[in-house]
Fold these 3 entries.
Entry 1:
Amino acid sequence: MKKLPRVLIVEDEPAIAELIAVNLRHNGCLPIWAEDGDAAQRELDAVLPDVILLDWMLPGQSGLSLARKWRADARVKGIPIIMLTARGDEPDKIAGLDAGADDYITKPFSTQELLARIRAVLRRRIPEQVNDSVTIGELVLDAATHRVTYQGELLKLGPTEFKLLHFLMKHAERVHSRSQLLDKVWGDHVFIEERTVDVHVKRLREALGGANVMVETVRGAGYRITGQPQALQRA
């Protein structure tokens, strides 16, 4: 029997949670409802979901603080988070993405758009069926084992950061615009904002540690990975 995608709905308004849950059930998902951060944590401790739908405004801990907390948890950090909120201004969207959300949807939203975004993050979470290994200097990515090492040390990357690094390393020295990266790495750019790329590049650099200078920002053009970073050339 095919496993249904498990979706954790963290939402304190029962009517909204039930509407989402009904539509998820009708579209082949298994919804689990938690009305606050404590209830959500209990669900996460019991069984990890495939996606978290996280409301920004919650009693007790806000969705923003919960996203930060879960991104710092090694067990939970790989679970995609879609932030649900009535706050639609760009600074709020950026704050949600910086806190660790993978996507952002503003209330009121259509159930079809929400379902499309859930399908998008689920597709992104599935590792590419490739078995190649890519090396640039002392940075090595092995797609078969889903491991990245730098100077022999194992690095911890989230699934999106892994795919982003894999694409950049496969096309080293080339500059890729944000829209090109959305198209090639995410594949569902209709629903994803270009600011999302900046957030994931920031996360990638943090995960790369001493190799972070290899990921360069080319002003007005985009990003590239290089074996001869300018920061080292200037040193």
Entry 2:
Amino acid sequence: MTPLPDTYRHQGQRRALARELRQRGIHDERVLAAISTVPRHLFFEPAFEAHAYQDKAFPIGEGQTISQPYTVAFQTQLLGVQPGHRVLEVGTGSGYQCAVLLQLTPHVDSIEFNSTLYARTRGRLAALGAGGAQLYCGDGSVGLPARAPFDGILVTAGAPGLPPALLRQLQIGGRLVIPVGDNQTQRMVRVTREGPESFVREEFEEFRFVPLLGASGWRTS
């Protein structure tokens, strides 16, 4: 695929979006810089490009959405990614959140349940020069045990509870950021692994996500 151009107008829209997110409470300068850098319009179909820098979610097909920029920034800020951290993203989707994470660390693994989205996003990230992530197609609710442990795990779909496999795949000191709740609304949760069997759970504001599918998510049948 041939990427759309990234113009001065788009760059100005990203800076304006970052200012809006700062006003809403996003204070991590590295996260704001990533939002200002990643061209979100390139993750949209050309016909919907005008919506790219509005602070709202937008459908991307296959019953999935590209998350609202505030949601992306909020989750990324909670994760506290540092250079050199190894991060697992559960739910690649459009690839936008993955591209934001790659601005913070080159060590990103991302797993997508939907094979159509996986194939589409793999090509898109490669075309945009953001192919540094290791992408997988499979059940993200059980993580990637062969690649564990991770310093951070970020889940971009709503789960009915905390997936045990993801907790086990955290490094000591690592963080899991995941929306937990029913199919209507979820509470954003951050779990920090403080020891082999010691976890600290924090809860934040409510969000609305598409459901996390899989063995430790919502069943597909």
Entry 3:
Amino acid sequence: MTSAPYASRERSTKERILGAAEALFATHGFAGASLRQVTAAAKVNLAAVNYHFGSKDKLIEEVFRRRLDELNSRRLAALGKISNQNETQLEDVLDAYIRPALDLSRTDGGGAAFVRVLARAYAEHNDTLRRFLSDNYGHVLRQFATEFGRLLPTLAKEEIYWRLDIVTGALTYAMADFGIIQRKSDVAERDHREAAAEHLIRFAAAGLRNPSVSPSPSPATR
């Protein structure tokens, strides 16, 4: 049986590696940050990385798993609560999808660097990583899409996914807090996030409720 102090040291080493990797991936990207840089920042040797993760690709996956497991557990728990209500509103489902993600991005929870890592994942078109995210977290998106479909029965399934994809893009932008509306020095971060959540929920609800309209053909195809 593993002793408690040894298990604690193992967790500490693994967490140091994950924290260092997250910060370096956020700054330099997945290709730009080397394992040598990760080991130096975490103050461990390469053998420790190989022992805990096996490869750089697996380390990248664990950086995402560390944050996304908790995020999506909170999303599904919130969705489960409102799904049992008699009159679930569209805003309730959006709240369950949006608010846990904005909470993840708070600086006091260490999620600010991960938001930049998430942006890297969108920008770098890493097929291995995309497949990992789809295989492990695609079911969460499908559950929300199903709930949106129930509340918006006139929208085709493909149209719901288009709109949910756009909502997710706006959410990622809000998580990065890189927009025109910056938090004022006299406004608490929690209050700023709350305002962002309320604005995004109202905006997303209006977009989702908009009647389905076939996209106009581009000039090249007319």
